[in-house]
Amino acid sequence: MEQDELLLKSGFKMVMHAGDARVLVRKALDHAARFEFDSAREALAKANEELLHGHEVQTEVLQKECSGEPQGYNVLFCHGMDTLMTVKSEYELAEKLTDMMQAINQKLEG
């Protein structure tokens, strides 16, 4: 497989995993808003799995570059890295918001 094609496929994979993770993060927040904390945490766990898969793809390419095998430049690959980082931030915020909402809910109930 040509280097350009590898970067293109890697970029697609990263965007796909990041997009799937983003959908799951939003589902988690919807669950948390309805005080369905177990469902929220389940969606967050699945989102984290998607992010890990995306980061594995990224790491594979970066390791090749670090071992002296130049990887060149591909806009889609850069977009994939950017999207992964953005969704990771969204994931971390959703995780914290879920914790906060659950703590507030416990205070109100108790």
Description:
Helix content is 87%, strand content 0%. The chain is an all-alpha fold and 110 residues long. The chain has one domain (3-109): Methane Monooxygenase Hydroxylase, Chain G, domain 1. Helix 1 packs antiparallel against helix 2, helix 1 packs parallel to helix 3 (75-109) and helix 2 runs antiparallel to helix 3 (75-109). The longest helix is centred in the last third of the chain and has 35 residues, at 75-109.
Number of E-state strands? 0
Find the structural class using helix and strand composition: mainly alpha
Tell me the domain tally. Answer: 1
Number of helical regions: 3
What's the SSE pattern?
HHH
Radius of gyration: 17 Å
Low-pLDDT segments, ≥5 res: none
Helix content: over 70%
Given the C-alpha coordinates, what overall shape results? Answer: elongated
CATH architecture grouping: Up-down Bundle
Percentage beta strand? under 5%
CATH C-level class is: Mainly Alpha
What is the multimeric organization of the chains shown? single chain
According to CATH, the homologous superfamily is: Phosphotransferase system, lactose/cellobiose-type IIA subunit
